Amino acid sequence: MIEARGLSKRFQDKKRGEIRAVDNVSFTCQPGKIYGLLGANGAGKTTTLRMLATILEPTDGTAVVCGYDVVEQPEKVRANVGFLSTATALYPRLTAQELVEYFGRLNGLDEPTLKKRVDDIFNRLDMNGFRDRRCDKLSTGMKQKTSIARTLVHDPPVMIFDEPTLGLDVMTARTITGFIRECRNKGKTVIFSTHVMSEVEKLCDTIGIIHDGKLLTEGPLPQLREKYAEKDLEEIFVKVVGPLLKNSEA
Amino acid sequence: MNFHNVATVYGKELTEWLRDKRTLISTVLVPLLAFPILMVGMTSLMTVMIGKAEKETAKIMVIGGEDSPQVIEKLRQVKDVEIVPYAEDWNKRISEKEIRAAVDIPKDFDAALAQGKELTVKIYFYQGEIKSSFGANHVEKFFDDYRDSVVSGRLASRNLPAAILKPFEVKQENVAPPEKVSGAALGGLLGYMVILLSMTGAIYPAIDLTAGEKERGTMETILSSPLSRVDLVLGKFFLVLSASLCTAILSIISMGTSFYLAGHSGAMAKKDAAVFQLHIGLSTVLSVFLMALPLAVLFAAALLTIALFAKSYKEAQSYLTPMTFIVVIPAVASLLPGFDLNPKLALVPILSTSLVCKEIVAGTFHWNYILLILLSSSIYAAAALFIAVKMFQRESVLFRS
Fold first, then answer.
1. Is residue A52 part of a domain?
2. Is A87 on the interface with B (CB under 8 A)?
3. Whole domain around residue A50: which residue ranges?
4. Which of A177, B88, B228, B394 is the 20 to 30 A CA-CA neighbour of B218?
C-alpha cells in the first residue's frame, strides 16, 4: 500500500526562484489496484513518483510505502518497490542476465534464490534468446523486457511506473501495459503516471489528476464521469485543468 | 556500510570497466606502451642522429688566414673537416646549413704565434644544430691540440719540463652509492610518475562512473535500488582507485623495462647508458607506492566528486583536464634542485609526497617527515572521500540539469 501525506517538493532555481514541483499532495493506493496519475508535462508526476521511490526526498510531508516511511526508512522502501521509467536505462556493457542478477544481489537475494528467480523471469518474459547479449546490443523491446525483469527480480509488493510507454512503439507499449495488468492481478500495489488518456481509461482503478504540482481531483473513472458530467476522460481532464491553464495564461 | 553491497557494486563496475575500450586504452595500454616507445624510440632516434652527425665530414669556412699558410695547411689535414672557399655570406650559409661552421683566423696568425703574441681564434656555429656543433668541435679540438703542441715546443726550446704548466692534478671522486647517484639523477622521476599516473589513470573511470552514468540514464536506475548512497560511492571509489593504481603500477613496470632496455640495448655509449641504470630495489618502489597511496585515494575521491557534478561526459572532461596541471606543477616543482622538505612543505599535498619520494629513492628516510606526510595526506584523502559521499547524497548534484 502507498499512502502519500501532504507530499511536497520545492526546488531552487537561479533564474525562476523557488519552484513548487509538488505541492501538498495526498492520496492512497491500495494493493491489487492501479492508481493512475494523470497530468501534462511538468505537472509534477515524475517528482511525485521519484519521492515515492525515495530517489528524491520530500521537502514537506511524507509517504508510507508498505509500512515504511520514505523519509525515515528510504532503503526499506526501495527494497519493497519496483521502479520503472523511460529514464531508468540499462548498463550498456552488462548482459541482460548480468544486469538482472546485479539488481537481485543489491536486493539481498542469496545465490540459489537469485538463480531460480532469474530463470523463472527469463522463461516467463521469453528472454532466454538474449540473456547473454549485452544491453547495448538489445532492441527496444528487449530492453523493456530486461527493465521489467530488473524491477521484478526481488518480487516487490509495490510497483511504480513513470510514463513507462513514453516513446515506445505500439507492440512494446502493449508488453508494458500487459505487465502492469499482471502486477495488479498478482495483488501488487501499482501507481502509474502518464499523459495518455487511453492508457488511463484501460488500466486504472483510481485516477488522480495533477497539475502545477497539485492534485486537483481523484477517484474511480465512473465517479469522475459523474462528478464532471462528462463521459470522455479527455473532456474531464480539460474541465479540471482548463480553468487553471486560462488563469496562468491570463 | 554493507561490505557485500560495496563488493557487488565494485564487481559490477570492474566488469563494465574491463569491457570499456576507452578506459582500458587510457588505463592499461597507454601506460604500458608510452615509456617503451618514448625511451627506445627516442634513444634510437638520438643514436642514429648523433651517429650520422659524427660521421659527416663538416664543411668549414676559413675567414682570413691568407697570410698564415702554416695553420691553414694543418687545418686542411684534419680528418672529418673539409675547408671550403671563403664567401662574404658565411653567416647566412651557416644558418642555411650549407656549411657547418666558420673559423676566423687573426691577421698574421703564424707570425704572431712565432713572436709569442696573444691571439684569439673565433669559431662561428649555429647553437642547437647538432651537425654545426660537431663541426665546431672538430675545429676547436684542432686548435686546442695545436696550442698544446706550440706550448710543448716553447717549453722544450727553453729546456723546461711539461709539468711546469700543471704542477698538480685535481680530480673528483664519487663516494655516493650507486642508488644515491641514480636517485639524484632520475629518482625524482619515479615519485613524479607514480603521482601523475595515479591521477591520469583515475580520470576516465571517474568520469565514466559518474557523469557517464548520468548521460546514459543509469544513475536513476541504480538510485531506485535499495543500495545506500554510501555503499554506491564506495564501490565506485574502489574501482577508480584500482584503475589509478593499476595505471601507476603498469607505468612503473613499463618505465623500469624501458630504462633497462635503453641501458642494455647497446645503442648508447657506455657513459650515457650508465645514466639509465637505476639501482632501485623493490622495497624502495613499494615505499614510494605506500607514500603515494593516500594521494591516489585523494585523487580518486576528488575526481569522482568533480565528475559527479558534471551533467555529461564532455562537461566532466572539461572540468578534469585542467586538474592535471594542478598535479603536474607541484610534482615538477619537487624535481627542481634545492627544493628540500621542511615542516611547512610536508603539509602541502602532492608536493610533499613528490619530495619525500625523491628522498626515498635516493636512500634517505626522514621518518618524522614520512609520518607527517602520510598523516596529512591521509587526512586530505579522508576529507575528499567524505565530500564524495556527501555529494552523492545531494539531489542538486545527482539531478543537476
1. yes
2. yes
3. 2-80+156-249
4. A177
- Is this prediction's ipTM beyond 0.85? yes
Residue ranges and CATH numbers for the domains of chain B are 3-44+177-398 (no CATH), 53-165 (3.40.1710.10)
Q: Residue A147 corresponds to which amino acid?
A: S
Minimal CA–CA distance to A137: which of A175, A177, A179, A99?
Answer: A99
Q: A96 and chain B: CB distance < 8 Å anywhere?
A: no
Q: Which of A168-177, A201-210, B45-54, B186-195 has the highest mean pLDDT?
A: A201-210
Task: Count other Cβ atoms within 10 Å, centred on residue B152.
Answer: 12
State the average pLDDT over residues A82-108.
91
Kindly report, residue by residue over A194-244, the tens digit of the pLDDT. Answer: 888 888 888 899 999 999 999 999 999 999 999 989 888 889 998 888 777
Question: Could you tell me if B109 and B119 are in contact, meaning their C-beta atoms sit under 8 angstroms apart?
Answer: yes
Chain B contact present for A187, CB below 8 A: no
Written as one letter, the residue type at A16 is: R
Q: In sequence order, what DSSP letters do the residues of B180-230 get, joined into one string? A: HHHIIIIIHHHHHHHHHHHHHHHHHHHHHHTHHHHHHT-HHHHHTSS--HH
In chain B, what residues touch A85 (CB-CB under 8 Å)?
220
Taking contacts as CB-CB distances below 8 angstroms, the residues of chain B near A90 are 218, 221
Q: What does pTM read for this prediction? A: 0.78
Residue A113 lies inside a defined structural domain of this protein: no
Residue A73 lies in a domain: yes
| CATH code (residue A194) | 3.40.50.300
Query: Per the domain annotation, does A103 fall within a domain?
Result: no
B154: exposed, middle or buried (C-beta count within 10 Å: 0-12, 13-18, 19+)?
exposed
**CA-based nearest residue in chain A for residue B228:** A75
> Which residue of chain A has the CA closest to B209?
A91
A88 interfacial to chain B (CB closer than 8 Å) = yes
The total of structural domains in chain A comes to 1
